Amino acid sequence: MKIKFFQFHPHTLFVNGGGETMFNNTLYQLKQKEIDADLFDIYKREANFDIFHLFGSNNAVSELYTSLSGQNKKLIVSAIDYSNLSYFKLQILKYIQKLYPIENTYKYRQKLFNYAKVIIANSNSEKQFLLDYFEIDKNKIEVVPVGVSSKFYNSNSTSFINKYNIYN
Fold it and tell me: Cα separation of 26 and 122, whole Å?
């Protein structure tokens, strides 16, 4: 089994964030387990893989399912998505976007999630958000909590507290 990893968030081209950390750590851990996993190079257009793991489900990558479906490739999506909107507001937003007569981000993302074999949520609350906002079979969503580096295991908060002048 060969897995290709891909992530693209335009605003993170020059600054790494949480998604990039999860991306890099997941790839590292799979390689440690001797699983054939590597970065997908968009310039090589290589199709020699079994699974395409997409980190993020933003509008910049939401149409990738069309290329993958044409090659009959399996897709895993780490959604990396959450909203603090109330359930009621989410339903109104969902309704408006579904009725909008042209393709939009919601519709593209819904198709992406429909094509995905597995959708990874970082928490139960992210899973619930995805179920509330999109029409997804709950059985295809797996919750994989974000891990914490072992370098923080025995650390304390003293330097952070001192640097930011936080008082107990």
Answer: 13
> How far apart, in whole angstroms, are the C-alpha atoms of residue 4 and residue 9?
17
CA–CA separation, 32 vs 36, rounded Å? 10
Structure tokens belonging to residue 73: 């490739």
Residue 55: beta bridge partners? 7, 78
Model pLDDT, residue 45: 80
CA–CA distance, 45 with 143 (Å, rounded to integer): 31
Dump pLDDT digits (tens) for 106-124: 888 999 999 999 999 999 9
User: Mean pLDDT throughout 63-71?
Assistant: 83
Rounded to the nearest integer, the mean pLDDT of the chain is 86
Secondary structure of 105-122 in the HEC alphabet? HHHHHHHHHHHCCEEEEC
| One-letter amino acid for residue 89 of the chain | K
Task: Look at the block and give the residue holding tokens 């440690």.
Answer: 32
Q: Is 50 helix (H, G, I), strand (E, B) or coil?
A: coil
Strands of 118-121's sheet in order across: 36-39, 2-7, 51-55, 74-78, 118-121, 141-143
pLDDT band (50, 70, 90) for residue 7: confident
CA-wise closest residue to 83 among 133, 137, 122, 120: 133
